[in-house]
Design goal:
By secondary structure, this protein is an alpha+beta fold. Helices cover 32% and strands 24% of the residues. A hairpin with a 4-residue loop joins strand 3 (26-31) and strand 4 (36-40). The longest helix is centred in the middle third of the chain and has 21 residues, at 108-128.
Length: 185
């Protein structure tokens, strides 16, 4: 039914990607944002875009595509500024498949609650241990988890947050900064 290279969409989420491996009943895809995710066969659907196929064939210009690829290769990405000896910030993936093995029987509310509680534990740990910065990987999806995370972070004093590095994470991560005060708790 599926084969490597197929363009697919996740049925219950706004995620599109390309099949990169198939093992029994599980299919691993690389999302359009560059993340690798694994789903069961019944959670995916092939993308068929036959209606626009003739338009794509007519507008296909291989020389233009080659030129665009060469131009993209020549551009140097902006490197992240790193201080010598700096330890990279801890990253916490809040995707449900990273938190529990079997989430199929969980409701959407239970999944969001578990993700929120996990994020809160990491925030509290970072505050207690005076960690200056952490990164939450929440994915793009419908934005519900990101909205919940933003609401939670807004309730803390001495915390600021923003979208994480786009080149590294796409639109699916949030960087959290903890403003340290000189008093020890």
């Amino acid at each position: 039914m599926f084969k490597i290279g197929d363009q697919v969409s996740v049925l219950d989420d706004a995620i599109d990607g390309t099949v990169i491996s198939i093992k029994n009943n599980e299919i691993t895809i690389e999302t359009d944002e560059g993340f690798t995710m694994t789903y069961f066969v019944n959670q995916l659907i092939k993308n068929f875009k036959t209606s626009s196929l003739s338009k794509n064939i007519e507008s296909f210009n291989s020389e233009k595509i080659k030129l665009e690829k060469e131009t993209a290769k020549r551009k140097n990405p902006v490197p992240e500024l790193k201080v010598k000896g700096e330890i990279p910030p801890p990253e916490f993936d809040l995707h449900i498949e990273k938190l529990v093995k079997n989430f199929r029987s969980m409701s959407h509310h239970e999944i969001l609650t578990l993700q929120s509680e996990t994020a809160k534990r990491h925030i509290e740990f970072a505050i207690r241990n005076r960690i200056p910065k952490i990164i939450f990987i929440h994915g793009v999806g419908e934005g519900i988890l990101k909205a919940e995370l933003d609401f939670m972070l807004g309730r803390y004093e001495n915390i600021s947050f923003r979208d994480a590095n786009y080149q590294k994470y796409g639109m699916g991560a949030t960087e959290v900064y903890f403003k340290q005060n000189s008093k020890l708790s």
